[in-house]
C-alpha cells in the first residue's frame, strides 16, 4: 500500500497538467467554432414613438381655402410597429404661421411630431379608428371648417394629421404617427400681386437619323418608334399639350421636336434589321393639331434647333474652330420650323443653358446668335446683397443682354417621383406656399418671378405642375400670370445681383456631363466632309437638309450624362455620310499597253447615287511625264445611277513603263474620294524597223528617178525626129506580154494616219492594249 500510495503521489501533478491542457484545447476549439459560425442578421428595430404609424397626406382640398370653406384632408396610414394599436383616433393640428421661405424648407424636411411646433389637436377634429393591426393600412379623411382653424392673419400655416393611441410598448395614449403639409391663407387679394411666369417645355430626345430613303419623298429613317408613345393619348407630350390649354404658361419649344413629329405625319421608316415602315401617322397628326390650337393662345419661345448644349459649347466647343458657327443657323432654322409647322411667329431671343447654370463664357456663347435674354437660375446667379425679399427675375448684365433669373426653389418643386399621391400633394402645397410667401415678404413691392422647371417633365410631374398653376389661377389672391417676354422686360430691382459668376463657380457635377472637345472635333470633321460632298451634287438640298439637322442634334443638351449614346450617334451620322460619298468613285483599271507614239486612255467614273454629280474635275498624273504625257484634266458630269468613261489623249516619248494616277477633284480643287493608280507600258517602234522602212522608201525614190530619166530621154529623141519604137539601146520599149510600159506610175505610199487613239468608251480590261 505504501508503494501504491507512493506511485499515486508521483502521478498526481501530471494528471492535473493533462486535465488543464485538455480544458484549454477544448476552449480554443469552441472559440474557433463560434468565430466560424455566421452571425444572424440583426433585426431592424421597429419604429417607435411618433413614427410607429406611417401617416401620408395624399390630398388637401381646397389647396388655398377661403373663409367659408372646410378643409378636407385625405390620406393613408400604416402600422409599421410590431404590436396592435388600440383606442386609436385621428386628429388635425394647426401650427403657427411660418416666418419666411427658409421656414417652409425646414417644415418640409421635418419628420415625426414636435408638440411645440406642430400645435395642439384641434377640438372637434378627432375621429376614432379603433384598432390598427401591425402591417395593416387604411385610408382616412378628415374635414374641419376653416373657422375652427383660427387662422388669425395672412400667411403660411402648418397643417398636420396625427394618429394617437396605445400600443404594447406605450400603454398610455400618445401620438404614434404624424404627417404635415402647408396651408396658404390669404383672406383678401394682395394689393400688389406677384407676377408669375411659368415656362412650359415641349422638348424630347433625338429620334431622327441623318438617313433618308432614295425615293423622291426622301422617306426619313427614325432611330426608333418611341416618340409615338409620348404623342399617344396619355403619353408625356400629349399630356403636356392637353394640360396646357387652360393654363397661363409660355411654351418653350425645341423646333427639332416639331420637325420630327411633322416627319411622322408622312411616310417614315424605323431603323433596324428589317427597316419596318412606321404606322403612327394618325397619332402625330392629332398631336400637331392640338398643339397648333394651343399655340394660338400662348406665347411661344423657340430654342435653337435641337436645343444645343450651350455650356458644352462654351467650355469645350470654343477650342474647335467653327464649332460656334452652328448656333446662328440653328436659330434661323428654329424660327422657320415653328412658323411653317405651327403657323406662329416664335420668339428666338431666349437662351436656356442646362439647369440655368451660367458663367461669363456661357453667356458669351448664349448671346452670340442673337439671344439677348439668358434664362439662368437663382442658385447660379446668387444674391449677395442680403435682400430680405425675392427680387424681380430680370437683371441687366451688360452688352444689352438680360439675365432672366428663375427661382430655384419653385423651379425644382416638382422634381422627383410625383407618381405617388402623397409626393404630388406635398409638392403642390409647397409650391403654393412659396409663391404666397414671396408676396408676403414685401407686400408693397410688386415683383416678377420666373419658373423654369425640368426640361422633360414626366406625366405625373406635369399633372402636379398643372394642379398648382390651376389653383393659383383660380385663387388669384396673391399672384397673376405674366408671359416670359414681358418678364424679361420687367423693371429690374436695383439691389439685385447682376454680376455673372466666373468659370470657377460653374458646378463640377454639370461639367462632368458635358460634351468633350473631341466630340466637337468629330462634328467639325463631319461638317467638312459634308461641305466637300455637297458641292458635287446636282441637288445638294437632298443631302444638306437631313445632314445639317443631324449635325445640330449631335450638340444637343439631350446627351448630358449619356456619353456613349452621344458618341454612337456621331459615329452613325459620319458612317452614313462616308457611305454616300463612296458611291461616286473611279473604277479600277488594270495595266494598259501603248503600241505607238499616241493613244487615248479611257477612265470610268461610277455614280451610284440617285442624283447626278457635276462640276467635278478628273485629272491624270504620270509618274514619268518625260516618258508619258497624259494630257489635260477634264470637267465631268455623271447622271445618277450611271457610269461614264472619259478619254485622255496620251503621247509616248520613250519606251518603258509609267504609273498613272487618276483623281477626282471638287470645284474648289479639293481631292474627292480615293485615287486610282494603274500602269501603262509604252512600246514605240524600234530603230531596226525604222531602218528597214527607210531602205524601202529609198528604193521607191530611186525607182522613181529611173523612170523620170527614161521618160526624159524618150522625149529628147522624139524632139530630134527619132522613132519611139526603139530606145537608145535598141529596145522596142514594150514591156513584154503584159503590154505595160515602163512609163506607168507606181503606187504611191499612203499619208500617215492621224495621231489619235481608239475612242472606245469601254473600261480597260486586264492587260489592255491601246492601239494607235
TrEMBL record:
UniProt-listed Pfam families: DUF6049
Coiled coil regions, renumbered to chain: none
Record's compositionally biased regions (Acidic residues): 722-734
Biased composition (Low complexity): 61-70, 753-772
Keywords: Membrane, Transmembrane, Transmembrane helix
Transmembrane segments: 685-709
PROSITE patterns assigned: TONB_DEPENDENT_REC_1 (PS00430)
Span list, region Disordered: 61-87, 483-510, 717-772
Comp. bias regions, Polar residues: 71-86
Name of the protein in its database record: Secreted protein
Amino acid at each position: 500500500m505504501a508503494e501504491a500510495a507512493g506511485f499515486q503521489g508521483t502521478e498526481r501533478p501530471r494528471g492535473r497538467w493533462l486535465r488543464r491542457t485538455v480544458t484549454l484545447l477544448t476552449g480554443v476549439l469552441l472559440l474557433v467554432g463560434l468565430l466560424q459560425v455566421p452571425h444572424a442578421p440583426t433585426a431592424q428595430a421597429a419604429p417607435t414613438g411618433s413614427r410607429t404609424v406611417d401617416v401620408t397626406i395624399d390630398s388637401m382640398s381646397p389647396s388655398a381655402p377661403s373663409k367659408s370653406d372646410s378643409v378636407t384632408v385625405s390620406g393613408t396610414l400604416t402600422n409599421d410597429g410590431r404590436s396592435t394599436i388600440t383606442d386609436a383616433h385621428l386628429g388635425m393640428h394647426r401650427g403657427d404661421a411660418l416666418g419666411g421661405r427658409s421656414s417652409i424648407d425646414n417644415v418640409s424636411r421635418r419628420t415625426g411630431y414636435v408638440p411645440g411646433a406642430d400645435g395642439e389637436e384641434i377640438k372637434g377634429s378627432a375621429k376614432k379608428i379603433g384598432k390598427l393591426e401591425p402591417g395593416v393600412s387604411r385610408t382616412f379623411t378628415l374635414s374641419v371648417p376653416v373657422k375652427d382653424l383660427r387662422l388669425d392673419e395672412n400667411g403660411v400655416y402648418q397643417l398636420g394629421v396625427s394618429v394617437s393611441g396605445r400600443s404594447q410598448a406605450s400603454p398610455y395614449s400618445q401620438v404614434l404617427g404624424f404627417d404635415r403639409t402647408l396651408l396658404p391663407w390669404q383672406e383678401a387679394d394682395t394689393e400688389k400681386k406677384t407676377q408669375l411666369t411659368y415656362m412650359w417645355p415641349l422638348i424630347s430626345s433625338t429620334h431622327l437619323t441623318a438617313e433618308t430613303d432614295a425615293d423622291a419623298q426622301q422617306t426619313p429613317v427614325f432611330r426608333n418608334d418611341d416618340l409615338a408613345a409620348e404623342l399617344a393619348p396619355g403619353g408625356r407630350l400629349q399630356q403636356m399639350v392637353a394640360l396646357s390649354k387652360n393654363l397661363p404658361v409660355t411654351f418653350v419649344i425645341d423646333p427639332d421636336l416639331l420637325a420630327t413629329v411633322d416627319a411622322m405625319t408622312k411616310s417614315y421608316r424605323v431603323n433596324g434589321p428589317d427597316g419596318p415602315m412606321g404606322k403612327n401617322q394618325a397619332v402625330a397628326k392629332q398631336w400637331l393639331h392640338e398643339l397648333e390650337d394651343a399655340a394660338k393662345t400662348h406665347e411661344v419661345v423657340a430654342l435653337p434647333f435641337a436645343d444645343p448644349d450651350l455650356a458644352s459649347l462654351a467650355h469645350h466647343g470654343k477650342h474647335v474652330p467653327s464649332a460656334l458657327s452652328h448656333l446662328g443657323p440653328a436659330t434661323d432654322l428654329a424660327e422657320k420650323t415653328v412658323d411653317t409647322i405651327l403657323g406662329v411667329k416664335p420668339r428666338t431671343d431666349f437662351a436656356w443653358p442646362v439647369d440655368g447654370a451660367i458663367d461669363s463664357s456661357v453667356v458669351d456663347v448664349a448671346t452670340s446668335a442673337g439671344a439677348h435674354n439668358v434664362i439662368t437660375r437663382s442658385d447660379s446667379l446668387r444674391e449677395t446683397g442680403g435682400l430680405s425679399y425675392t427680387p424681380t427675375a430680370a437683371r441687366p448684365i451688360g452688352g444689352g443682354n438680360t439675365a432672366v433669373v428663375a427661382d430655384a426653389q419653385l423651379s425644382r418643386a416638382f422634381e422627383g417621383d410625383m407618381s405617388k399621391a402623397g409626393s404630388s400633394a406635398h409638392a403642390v402645397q409647397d409650391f403654393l406656399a412659396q409663391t404666397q410667401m414671396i408676396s408676403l415678404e414685401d407686400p408693397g413691392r410688386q415683383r416678377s418671378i420666373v419658373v423654369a422647371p425640368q426640361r422633360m417633365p414626366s406625366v405625373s410631374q406635369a399633372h402636379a405642375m398643372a394642379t398648382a398653376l390651376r389653383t393659383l389661377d383660380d385663387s388669384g389672391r396673391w399672384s397673376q400670370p405674366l408671359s416670359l417676354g414681358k418678364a424679361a422686360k420687367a423693371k429690374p430691382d436695383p439691389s439685385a445681383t447682376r454680376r455673372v459668376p466666373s468659370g470657377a463657380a460653374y458646378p463640377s457635377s454639370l461639367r462632368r456631363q458635358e460634351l468633350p472637345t473631341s466630340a466637337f472635333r468629330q462634328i467639325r470633321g463631319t461638317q467638312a466632309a459634308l461641305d466637300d460632298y455637297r458641292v458635287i451634287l446636282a441637288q445638294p438640298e437632298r443631302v444638306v437638309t437631313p445632314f445639317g439637322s443631324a449635325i445640330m442634334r449631335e450638340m444637343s443638351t439631350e446627351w448630358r450624362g449619356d456619353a456613349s449614346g452621344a458618341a454612337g450617334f456621331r459615329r452613325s451620322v459620319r458612317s452614313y455620310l462616308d457611305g454616300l460619298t463612296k458611291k461616286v468613285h473611279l473604277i479600277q483599271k488594270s495595266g494598259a499597253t501603248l503600241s505607238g507614239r499616241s493613244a487615248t486612255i479611257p477612265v470610268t467614273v461610277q455614280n451610284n447615287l440617285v442624283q447626278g454629280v457635276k462640276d467635278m474635275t478628273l485629272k491624270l498624273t504620270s509618274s514619268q511625264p518625260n516618258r508619258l504625257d497624259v494630257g489635260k484634266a477634264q470637267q465631268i458630269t455623271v447622271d445618277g445611277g450611271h457610269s461614264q468613261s472619259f478619254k485622255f489623249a496620251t503621247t509616248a516619248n520613250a519606251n518603258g513603263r509609267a504609273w498613272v494616277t487618276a483623281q477626282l477633284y471638287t470645284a474648289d480643287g479639293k481631292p474627292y474620294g480615293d485615287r486610282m493608280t494603274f500602269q501603262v507600258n509604252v512600246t514605240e517602234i524600234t530603230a531596226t524597223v525604222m531602218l528597214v522602212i527607210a531602205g524601202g522608201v529609198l528604193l521607191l525614190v530611186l525607182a522613181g528617178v529611173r523612170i523620170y530619166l527614161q521618160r526624159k530621154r524618150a522625149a529628147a529623141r522624139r524632139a530630134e525626129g527619132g522613132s519611139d519604137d526603139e530606145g537608145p539601146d535598141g529596145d522596142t520599149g514594150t514591156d513584154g506580154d503584159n503590154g505595160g510600159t515602163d512609163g506607168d506610175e507606181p503606187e504611191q505610199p499612203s499619208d500617215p494616219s492621224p495621231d489619235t487613239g481608239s475612242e472606245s468608251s469601254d473600261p480597260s480590261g486586264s492587260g489592255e492594249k491601246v492601239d494607235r
